[in-house]
Amino acid sequence: MIRVGMGSRCPASALSKLAVVAAIALIALCGCEGAGVGVSYSAGGYYAAPYDYDYDYGYAPWGPDYYVGPPVVVGGVVVHDHDREHERDHDHEHDRGYYDGGHDHGGNRGGHAPHYRAPAPSRPAPSIPTRTRPH
Amino acid sequence: MSSCARRALQALSFALLLYGPAAMAAEPAGRGLPADLPPVTQSGGEHLSGKVIWHDLITPDLEAAKRFYSALFGWSYRDLSGSYSVAYSGGEAVGGIFQRPLRSGAQRQPLWLTFIAVGDAGQAARLAEQNGAKILAGPSSRPNRGEQAVLSDPEGAMFGVLTSSNGDPPDYQADPGAWIWSVLLVHDSDQEATFYQKIFDYEVFDISEGEPLQVVLSSQDYARATVRPLARGARGRPRWLGFVRVEDVASAASKAQSLGARVLVEPRTDRHGGRIAVIADPAGAPLGLMEWNGSGSQSAQVPK
Prior knowledge:
The complex is a heterodimer. Chain A contains 2 helices and 3 strands. Chain A has helices at about 10-30, 90-95; strands at about 55, 70-75, 75-80. In chain A, strands 2-3 form a two-stranded antiparallel sheet. In chain A, strand 2 and strand 3 (about 75-80) form a beta hairpin. Chain A is elongated and about 85 Å long. In chain A, about 35% of the residues are buried. In chain B, the strands form 2 sheets. Chain B has an 8-stranded mixed β-sheet with strand order 2-3-4-1-6-9-8-7, with helices on one face. An 8-stranded mixed β-sheet of chain B has the order 11-12-13-10-14-17-16-15, covered by helices on one side. In chain B, strand 7 and strand 8 (about 145-150) form a beta hairpin. In chain B, helix 3 (about 120-130) packs antiparallel against helix 4 (about 190-200). Chains A and B meet through helix 1, strand 1, strand 2 and helix 2 of A and helix 1, strand 5, strand 7, strand 10 and helix 4 of B. Strand 1 (about 55) of chain A pairs antiparallel with strand 5 of chain B.
């Protein structure tokens, strides 16, 4: 305990505690972002949120048929792997082998109906915008 | 003043001296982010919910990032403050670059943050939260830009929602140097597609050729993004990954390397017939490169 006054006792340990408390209060006032316990919503602090990822790229080798791009649609039909038709069966094996199989409740359908609302089967998948921007 | 009071003041001064800089370093973020951000497009009008309309790079060195992307894509910039610049490609805004020192401690990785258009960012954030997302920042409004919030989806992939104040960029084919595509790499593509459908009312098309499930998220009759499982063995968290259109992926990847980037996924042919690659810029932020031949591959428009 700290008592201020003539003749009061003021142990060093109490002063140490005061310094620690002051430091904690200071850090708290500064937003605590470094401690990961708060997000500033002030006009200048929008990006105080911890947007950066753990340092881990997570790009394990992509198999030969690990596709991420947009579908190619011709006449309303999605063209799959159009330049390697003859390897289709082989490709499927590759694709199965290169997905995150450790979480197969949905990544792998397993014959189950999806949880999302599917469009009518007759409705074709669209492509990306192809209209040219006027210059 | 008593000796004890003096000692207390000395202790407080010592604490300020010792911890003050540390506290400042721990929270440098946001300082300098302009309150008045420019609109995402000058030519907007229509709101295109579900469309990826903006990207912000959060990086520790603004000037280095500007040099890299200018050399690689030919981007130009408008500096809004000492820590935030808007990047332009062919006169069109393509994103923002925000300088934010990485947090100390564990190694961190800068990233490009993907913003998706929505009619009401606040409502979307609340709906996302009710469906398993976390709100990381906002919703907050900024003059000219609109209302935005930053979220992490149920699997932890970070993304933003943005209600643009003057509408969204029209649906034109992306020119080289502009963002052309987005992919969401996750553990469970079914559950994640379901989540995003609830927030953005996407149509979800199964484009799998077997297993695993791969889907395309669509709005306004345009494909907006692919959702697919992470590659096996991937250690990273689920994430959004944006692709910039380039004329030649191989030469772009090579040039990126010469500028200090790392090639994470070597150039390869993707389902659309063009090549893609994934790089990490010199600060470590991943992004994709994609060729697009520009041929008419759009489906016939089907009235809803």
